[in-house]
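To close the section, here is one more complete example, presented without commentary so you can practise reading it yourself. The ligand is 2-oxoglutaric acid.
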Amino acid sequence: MPWSDAEYAEFRKNGYRLVRGLLSPQEIAGLNADVPALLNGDEAADRMHREREKSGAVRQVYGADRYAPRYRALARHPEILGPVRELTGNDVYVWHSKINVKDAFEGTVWLWHQDYGYWMWDGVEPKLISVMVLLDRATINNGCLMVVAGSHTWGRQEHYADTVTTSYKQWCLDVPTLKERVREDDIRHITGEPGDVLFFDCNLVHGSGHNMSPLPRKTFIVAYNDLANKPKPVENPRPDWVVAREFEAVR
Ligand SMILES: O=C(O)CCC(=O)C(=O)O
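Output:
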């Protein structure tokens, strides 16, 4: 369903908007049926990139929208693309996509960050919109996403690379900045059911806690970039699975 003016205003004020029940249980069942193969695939053969937790469990799978037909269709879902194109004011292409797995008891934290905190170094302007599809129920116990409402209006903040907290390097906000800026009342937990979809600004501060529960917490995130915002050359370009060079408008 198209968003009303008030819903666009809500996104612009808070930096995010959660749409309940955008996908049906049947659509979610199909997406989840593909997950075991996506987690266990052979990278050399399927070209999807995987990050692992220290425990060895898969933390993220990048690129399902390129190689798995159901995920490809999801990245082109009209009720997702409509608002994304309206928010960017232009055609968009897929910057990257990833399934964030967060397995029961094993899935670890994402420290507070803005995606544009590091995307800036990829040579783009902050004109990207991310869309997170809940593939499982997301609860406070299983490490649902947390956002700081309105933090996109701060503009990009300095980030540093944390290399100790999890298995992988995370760009994150430092504690002095967090203490100065984050108000407890602005922290929102994005809990919900499979099929709920979150749209968020690339400067929205977000993160999430460890999965302390027996429930997995899988999400599929697609980041879209304005087609007029292709990356300018940078000193250390990142690989294609995280900064796509396929500048094809998705429709
Ligand atoms: O999955 C999450 O809880 C957070 C993911 C995130 O912030 C990211 O992938 O950049």
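Once you have examined the tokens, check your reading against these statements. The first strand starts at residue 16 and ends at 19. The two ends are 16 Å apart (CA to CA).
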